[in-house]
Write a structure and sequence with these properties.
about 240 residues; Uracil-DNA Glycosylase, subunit E; 6-stranded mixed sheet; binds iron/sulfur cluster
Length: about 240
Amino acid sequence: MAELQRQYLKAMGIDVWQRRDLPVVEVPQSQPVTVPQVSESAAIIANSEPSTAPTADVSTMEWGALQRAVSTCERCSLHSTRTQTVFGVGDKQASLMIIGEAPGGDEDRQGEPFVGRAGQLLNEMLRAIGFKRDQVYIANILKCRPPHNRDPKVDEVNCCDPYLKRQITLVQPAAVLAVGRIAAQNLLKSSERIGVLRGREHQLPGTKIPLIATYHPAYLLRSPIEKRKAWQDLQQVHALITDKI
Ligand code: SF4
């Protein structure tokens, strides 16, 4: 078994089996890989959708203006129930962009995506393929929490979409990892189940950016049997990025 895989499985809580007649291998702390530079082939996302942009032209905003626009956004009804907006975190020139669904309770309180137990598992998953959390860029489809963590509504996704599109354009990642069914379906404009969408390479519509879909860490906490499939997805996205170094 490859050392990287051993580290990942251990971090995710999957039992590592080893023959008794072999010496026990100590698992060292994983070392982050060198983060590749922005790929020239990562095309800027196309602006082919009907305009749902807020009054100001989001598609030309730089990071500061974009973050300010999100923080005061009232484009959809979710602004009235949020504690705060959850913009996104990480390396703004990351080769890997993680896109999830929407803030949950912890994220709404802390203003950061993927915190809490699911966030910790995501961090372990990233570390297993050589990334620290601050070496990727993490964002969500929605920047405000839907009440009681219900699924996002179509009009909410459409209202918030220009912000995510602009984030992707600014980051220009070499690959996107769509985390969970909602993220994968919305990014790929598909109604397929996550079990169907994962396990193969897609392209983010309107771009040349490769996209891999995988299970949400919150789901993996409930269904640890699926962690092995998530590991395959991570290996796939890791290969996509390292191919571009
Ligand atoms: S979810 Fe997006 S569009 Fe809706 S209020 Fe929040 S930032 Fe604005």
